[in-house]
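Sample entry (167 residues):
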Amino acid sequence: MAAFPARAETEGLEPYFKELADPSEQGWARAEADIRRAWSRSGSATMDLLLKRGEQALDDGDADAAIEHFTALTDHAPDFAAGWNGRATAYFMAGLYGPAASDIAHTLKLEPRHWGALAGLGAILEEMGDDARALEAYRASFALNPHQQDVKDAIARLEKAHQGTAL
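Predicted structure, serialized as tokens:
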């Protein structure tokens, strides 16, 4: 089956990214929701259904089913970053860090501002013991979206663990 020309509609999101990146912005939650909504729309009802099924499998803790749904999505809509990011999450859940990192790289190629993919990369690198690169990924994610408490905590944890050493 040929690839479907699905791709998230990300034009015009710059004002939302500016609101999101401002720690004092009151409308950040709405901006974040608007960005996530835009990222989740492929332009194809079929591809959007595959995304929803993959996300439901993740919510159910079924990494194998999620990988299947997201693989179908990335096969048929290779320019849709949400599919790659979803599969990266499923691979991470399954403990498959190499494939997860590869899919994160693909996600970031399609959407360099994907703070979730950057946070995921940080988690993978931290799990692998590469704290310097993990911290770099977490900081990049936090710069895009400073409202992520888990990322803020990860940065603080790594900075504290490496106080007095060069990271």
